[in-house]
Fold:
Amino acid sequence: MDNELSAFITIFTEFYYWVTVVFMFFIHVGFCVYEVGASRWRNHKHTLLKNTMIIPLVTVTWYLFGWWIYFAVPNGPGITGPLLEAGWATPWSEFMGSHLGGSTFQEGLSVENDGWWARINGVFFAAFLLFSWTAASIVSGACLERIRPSAYWILAVCIGSFFWVIDAAWGWHPDGWMVQLLGYHDAYASGVIHAIAGGFALGVIIVLGPRIGKFRADGTPRNINPHNPWLVTVGLFLIFSGFWGFYVACNIPMLDVGAGDGGSYFTATNIYLTPTTLSAITFNFLMSLSGGMLSAFIVSKGDVLWIYYGGLAGVIGASAGNDLYHPIQALIIGMGGAWVCYKGHFFAERVFKIDDPLGAVAVHGYAGVYGLIIAGFMLWGYPASMNPDYAHVSPLGQLAGAAIMFGLLGFLPGFIIAKILSAFGVLRVPRGVELAGLDLREIHVRYEEKEELRAALAKEPMDG
Amino acid sequence: MSTGLENWSNPETIGAIYPFVGSEMLMFGLLVAIWLLWHIICLVTESHEWDGDLQTLAGKPLPGEEYGDN
Structure:
């Protein structure tokens, strides 16, 4: 902060991330609104409660361990190196509080090496935290109307403050082992956020089972429509709005990446510290969104809700390479993302009896995996990092990355933790309560429906 | 005194500006306890809530009935 250029870069970076956090808050507002619009009236308050409490729980645990994990485990540890020191990110660090960076008193921290973090830590922490809320919220939608909130909150902490950040350290860090060895490239988080959260959600809902009434006795699915398509629309548009902040937060706004002759070259970079521009990602965000919507219109025969989902799937499908694609490439890839999402959703529902009420597994999981694999072919041979010794992007590296994100760090932990919660009998709400509605206690059953309710309940076991 | 900060001159030498500098580990322990206790309280109270709902549904008056506010 002792000269105008360094002070400008530092304060601009602080402000930049702060703005992205405000934008990304819209994602969470959108998820709340969207889920309430999609749930049935008897479950509204619990649906809101479930999603709202992500905010404090993931924030607290992100402070306790999530933020530190990102900096500590890029090497595995044990794959390309040991556990790393990250003194600015431990929850007891002086840099995890109000700090001007002029002096330090804790062992292992110095103004020279770590002073920058005194200024940047909170906003950078928050930008990553908002990604964490998003990862947890994606899972929330898949568990709609049948999971116990307390069980969901344990799962939310696991995905939001633990598993996704391990994958971020491995594949979304300039020195992550997946970047070093696989040439893994996922600039706007097709896999790092979306595939992992989709995989985790799939693992959970396989254990959780479908909502009562979702499938007929012969196994054919019923379409449980959202009770309020207008709220769903507003919610999804808020998510689109927040997605802008998400994209921008994935960049470093101003960094000297060095010119070839040893001089300076200031630019925006992606998370791997390779140069990009806000213009590039703005082109590609819009075109992949458009591609997804166009394709979803055709494949869903004009179902407007699937057009929104398709827009998201289009962006998610192109996100891995949206720092580098041409906008028309992004559009075509986005079209494929929406197609994979729609077809994958109904295939899984029909064949495997998967009840994914909001298409979360499809929009985030299937489109995310598709995005990683496509990027492997489209960006085959690109350097994945500024470090010339690291691997280049390849189809095999991206395929391995997709398996790690969706399968190893997503599906597997989701399935195992849900199994444990189920074994303790705390995963799913009792059957009678699910039939009557999770908000029974709060909103009271309406008198005119009392006999109807009792008649329905008489046919069902009341012991949960 | 909750902090060693006595004035704002020479800001380039100022580090931590929160009160009770040096108590970070204690605050960390407190936050862990708050977090874990919250989950435990939540699991227990929620189980009671579901049990109560099941009893209600098993034949007792439905919520609100006894108050005539249906």
